[in-house]
Amino acid sequence: MHVSNMQMGWVAALAPLWPLLAFVGLGGVMLMHRAPGERAVVRWVLGALWLSLGCSVLTAASMLWMHQDVVELDVGQWFSTGHYAFDLTLRADLLSVTMMVLSSAITLLIGRFSVNYLHREPGFARFFLLLCVFATGMLVLVESGSIDLLFVGWELVGLTSALLIGFFHERSTPVRSGLRAFTIYRLCDTGLLVGAVLLHHFAGTAEWSEALGSWPWPGPAAALGVVPATVMALCLMLAAMGKSAQLPFSSWLPRAMEGPTPSSALFYGALSVHAGVYLLLRVAPLLERAPLVSGLLVGVGLLTAVHATLVWRVQTDVKSALAYGVLTQVGLMFAEVGLGLYRLALAHLVAHACLRCLQLLRAPSALREVLGQRAALRLAPPPAVAVAHRVLPEGLLRRLYRLALERFSLEVMHERWALAPLFRAGQWLDGMEQRWMSALSGWTSPADARTKSPERSDLVTTPESTPGGPSTGAV
What we know:
Layout: H1 5-31, H2 38-66, E1 71-81, E2 84-92, H3 94-117, H4 124-143, H5 147-165, H6 172-203, H7 208-211, H8 226-243, H9 252-255, H10 261-270, H11 275-282, H12 284-288, H13 291-312, H14 318-338, H15 342-361, H16 363-377, H17 388-391, H18 394-405, H19 410-441, H20 446-452
Antiparallel strand pairs: 1-2
């Protein structure tokens, strides 16, 4: 059966459309304050994910059967203003088709696993709603034919990531961890935004095929100057480092394990954490014109791998240990991209995503197995696998052990320099809002009451000072 390029392009375009339709349908029902049953949610969402996987597999099989290296589809224009038009262009090649099949398959697997894992959880429908948003964003990201459309998928993935970290919002720790990840995302995503603007400026277009060349991936070096290519590559490198939690932006990844285990496996073991590697692989022709950035990628990747390996050895919980294991392998992928080993990095990405997803999903079972092995070994010491214990001096080993226990103080630095100013700004805005509401309604706001009260908040109240009865302790 003959399949044209246009037909293959439309099949690829349907892959992110099915989860989007599921999100619209399920979100519309929840917006009307109607709680759908678990069975209806599962049928609706998993059905859309099955159709999405079918479209991804069909696209890959058609390209393989027809011996097509690149398939592009111009869906149309989203909007236009002046001389600029936002075109919706999709691109299917070896890189994007591989990521399409991987993303669709793992998202469906996580969805099926979550049916039993989140059974009778109050946020059951909310989780599957966010799963649809993530599936749409990830497929748009990997299929995008322009950096503008990639930015849309990139932001959808980041938004769902932060929301699922804070899934258990009744506790303060997940919410704070989600805010930490969201803050670092916003900081590093400025690199992607500036890179997109610079690509428009220097190349005159946002289309990958026009800016970087229409050759099959990875293709030769882009037809750009060394200086513009280096500046753009530095911006995109910043965005990739934030999304993939490379040094010095590594502190948010272990904290992201506060979310449900299925979301941890999907985002930080399989797909989202590898989005930065995908971005670097997509702009491989740009990196060929920026040797300075390639060298920086090797340095950042190796430093992250060494840092994560040291910290991994002192972790006391399995999810944190797996998080730093992910950082080690993603750091090696950055080094592979910097060395120009693009196909090796892609194969490494696929294999690592499958392995870490499996490890995170079966982490509770792995704990039972480890306990059983220790009980069987009894007093026998485990075999030493680190060469550093036999090579490095004892004083240096103790210093490295202390730094690893403190996670190299990255969390303290991020807390002080990124989160603390944000929290202070939020508290100031909250106080201003309370004063504004009190001025409109005529009642005294809690902020004004605290500032006007002569009492110290750290004093212990007495029964006489409490109008409602005896005191219960410190106020």
